[in-house]
Amino acid sequence: MEIAIKVYLESYKKICHNITDEELLYISKGLTISEFKAKQYYLKAEQIQLSIGYIISGLIRSFYIDDKGNEITIGFFKENEYVTDYGAFVRQKPSKYYLQCIEPSVVVNLPYAVMQEGYDLYKNIERYGRLVTEEVLVMQQTRLESFLFEKAEERYLNFIKRSPELFNRISLTYLSSYLGIERQSLSRIRKQITSK
User: Fold this and answer.
1) Structure pTM?
2) Quick count: other Cβ atoms within 10 Å of Cβ 101?
3) Which of 84, 150, 71, 182 is nearest to 161 (CA)?
4) DSSP per residue over the chain, as a string?
5) 150 Rama sector, left if φ>0, alpha if ψ -120 to 50, beta otherwise
6) pLDDT of residue 54
7) Is the distance from CB of 59 to CB of 101 less than 8 angstroms?
């Protein structure tokens, strides 16, 4: 488990080159590690996420259930990414989403209270938090704009380009839901692309 914490702390160094040993020690004291099997939930709708998770290994899907009972996939979180319903997390409000493991996953957890106190105490921790927040915002904006400005085939091709490592790790059902494309239509798009 020490390896998991070391990997997590390295993520701070990659983003915040000036982070000090004192700051890293502060962060490390609050960390816990969780292990999940495939199909287990990191977070369920209506729960408040008390810690933000950082995936060391595994893959987690974010989805909600619509009024017809369908699971609508809105995102995937993989190694070296934070797994969170960020808007609800920073406000400490109940989530509207389920975060479910597609694969067995190991997650390092940083409590909300430790994170907030770290922002007050240390400028590099605050800077790291700001940079991560900016990255989350860019990812959300990219997803929104893909539905506004891209056709189904473009959304599929851009997903493959941005996340080639996920292509063989997620089911066609989850991918079609995420892209907002009927499963049959996605199969047809894939066939057309392969035959070109």
Assistant:
1) 0.92
2) 22
3) 150
4) -HHHHHHHHHHHHHH-TT--HHHHHHHHHH-EEEEE-TT-EEE-TT-B--EEEEEEE-EEEEEEE-TTS-EEEEEEEETTSEES-HHHHHHT-B-SSEEEESS-EEEEEEEHHHHHHHHHH-HHHHHHHHHHHHHHHHHHHHHHHHHHH--HHHHHHHHHHH-GGGTTTS-HHHHHHHHT--HHHHHHHHHHHHH-
5) beta
6) 96
7) yes
Edge-to-edge strands, sheet with 59-65: 41-43, 98-101, 59-65, 71-78
d(CA 185, CA 33): 40
Please state the domain extents for the chain: 2-149, 150-196
The CATH fold of domain 2-149: Jelly Rolls (2.60.120)
Q: Give the angle subtended at the CA of 83 by the CAs of 41 and 128, to the nearest 5°.
A: 155
CB neighbours of 18 closer than 8 A, spacing ≥ 6?
124
What are 65's strand-pairing partners?
71
Residue 127 has pLDDT above 70, yes or no: yes
The mean predicted confidence, pLDDT, of the chain is 93
